[in-house]
Amino acid sequence: MADQKIKVATCSLGGCFGCHMSLLDIDEALIEVEKHVQFDRSPITDIKNISKCDLGLIEGGLCNEENVHVLKDFRENCKVLVAVGACAINGGLPAMRNGIDVQDCLKEVYQTGYNLTTDIIPDDPEIPRLQEKVQPLHELVKVDYFLPGCPPPAPAFLELITALLEGREPNIDYPHRRFD
Amino acid sequence: MENQTQAGLRRIAIEPISRVEGHGKITLLLDDEGHVKQARLHIVEFRGFEKFIEGRPYYELPLLVQRLCGICPVSHHLAAAKAIDQINGVKQLTPAALKLRQLLHWGQLLQSHALHFFHLASPDLLFGYDSDVSKRNIIGVLKEYPEIAVQGVKIRKFGQEVIRAVSGKRIHGIAALPGGMNQPLDREVYQYLTAEIDQIVEWSKDAVELARRLCLEDTELFNSFASTESPYMSLTDEKGGLEFYDGNLRVKNADGSILNDQFPNERYTDLIQEEAKSWSYMKFPFLRSIREAQGGDSGWYRVGPLARINNCDSISTPLAEHYRQDFMKIAGNPLAHQNLAFHWARMIEALHCAESIQKVLADPDLFSLDLVAKGNRQSSGIGIIEAPRGTLFHHYEVNDDDQVTMANLIVSTTSNNFAMNEAVCSAANQHIDGNEVTPGLLNLLEVAVRSYDPCLSCATHAIGKMPLHVEMLDSKGQLIHQLSKNSNGEFS
Ligand code: SF4
């Protein structure tokens, strides 16, 4: 790996954090990565607003207005933006709700749902409105790379970061290009 | 107090809560003297799993629902598996399948507990709650306490490898079938596991000692911080011992007396019900018997490591049992209600998992091919297990075409929803009330939530996000003070 430090921000939109877990699955390599990478906004730090970064990793698709806002913020601030995992690339499992009217979905969960004593659908201004459909990232902003898998395996993350440090195109070998 | 824009109060928002899994925010309403009038934890995302899995074939469930959560996918995989066993009329798994599932679950608990303690919570405990934001993370721990951090990383790695050995993949693997498991243990990973396990048990013991030391370093803080008394719910085995995979429900009152014992899992709706509130996508479950007697918001309870250690009469492995007794002697009066005691209890459980894995790895059944049992098809199934964060309920009904017609999921963190709100209120009252609000004080509110290791990702069958921006408005809604954290973690 080269000597300079790159700044990396990560976030989860409508994802399950599995992609973030897979990034941590590089295990001890985290110690080496630490020497070359400075983490900016990420669920693993207490930095809550993104600043200019070399690399932005986003898991999860766009489920609500808040997600849209965060994605735009990441695009503005990241030189290279990567859609990480099935949810970011095509909406993934949460997009299974796209065939259903979002109000029906809320109704089922909060009104007609099993063993419930209230019929309140949460709508406080403190919680973000849902998107009608779950969307992949590239429908809203330009995405530079797609890292496939549910989640992409740890070596794929390592290759991506290493390639960026070495200033070359990433090359994920076949066993680590996953589509499950 | 249902409206946060209510006249006369100042609003403070902490958003996003970091070093937790998933997305949430905290809001505070203060009066002109700075007294806390309301403190809330909001869960800001929604995914609607219960609706969109309707119509899917039931045998897909373990694979679908584990995508609720990448941190504890195994918990959802197994809770769904237990439910679909019942749908297949299977009452008893083959010994090999049961041991593989238990092993998988212990691996999961071990990695999740290590992740929470070392990667997410330890920066608060090691550096202090108001320490420099730029180092208050796992990378900071790696630099200043490399030995502790590396052990944490390796314990988590080991747990993840256990999962891979059983399910083929560390995250979202494929293991459970209706009535059993799809393959025996992977022999190659097994070599690694047997070579490492003694060391992992040793390190897990160190982790309990560390958590114990950090808790007791400041006993006053330990005993007072965001403490709140509540009933506790968990599974226990038939003798009342600690149990994660099987068993029946036990509820203890705050004073340590038993409210329900060996409560049959299939009657869980007689025990708890849920309500929703307008300001959170996460529901609020409560104990019916207490609510019926006392009304109001009563009946909330807690689940998770603290609940399990408080509830059980014993632990089947010697080291963990030793530390359980020590813990109850020091922290329990008669139960341990301290917020920070969650961390200590969590590490005792991690040690128990390491010891249990050590024991089961010697069992030749792990390589048996007798993996699937059969039974008579039923129309519903209820799978309840103890996930890392507490009791997890999966309930499904299916039609004759094998399609899911009803799904009810109560994930662990949901059961702690009331309690986390209480913790935020109590920390706010203790530390914010009447004071000038500083970043360090605000982190304390996050610390109170973090103890619960909330998986907000699971909790809404959804997921959220968060930057920190705090606004204070005066009685007329005018901005009088604002604090923002920039991406270097500096406040302005
Ligand atoms: S791609 Fe898979 S692992 Fe990643 S966030 Fe989506 S469901 Fe989770």
Automatic annotation (TrEMBL), chain A:
One GO molecular-function entry: oxidoreductase activity
InterPro entries given in the database record: Hydrogenase_assoc-protein, NADH_UbQ_OxRdtase-like_20kDa, NiFe_Hase_small_N_sf
UniProt-listed SUPFAM superfamilies: HydA/Nqo6-like (SSF56770)
UniProt domain NADH:ubiquinone oxidoreductase-like 20kDa subunit: residue ranges: 16-164
Pfam families according to UniProt: Oxidored_q6
Keywords carried by this UniProt record: 3Fe-4S, Iron, Iron-sulfur, Metal-binding, Oxidoreductase
The protein's name: NADP oxidoreductase
Organism field: Pelagibaculum spongiae
Organism lineage: Bacteria, Pseudomonadati, Pseudomonadota, Gammaproteobacteria, Oceanospirillales
UniProtKB/TrEMBL annotation, chain B:
Cofactor(s) this protein requires: Fe cation; Ni(2+)
InterPro entries noted in UniProt: Ni-dep_hyd_lsu, Ni-dep_hyd_lsu_Ni_BS, NiFe-Hase_large
Stored Pfam families: NiFeSe_Hases
Keyword annotations from UniProtKB, A to Z: Iron, Magnesium, Metal-binding, Nickel, Oxidoreductase
Source domain of life: Bacteria
Gene3D superfamilies, A to Z: Cytochrome-c3 Hydrogenase, chain B (1.10.645.10)
Protein residues bound to Fe cation: C72, C458
Binding residues annotated for Mg(2+), in chain numbering: E50, L409, H461
Single GO term (MF): nickel cation binding
Positions bound to Ni(2+): C69, C72, C455
Family: Belongs to the [NiFe]/[NiFeSe] hydrogenase large subunit family.
Name of the molecule in the record: Ni/Fe hydrogenase subunit alpha
Organism field: Pelagibaculum spongiae
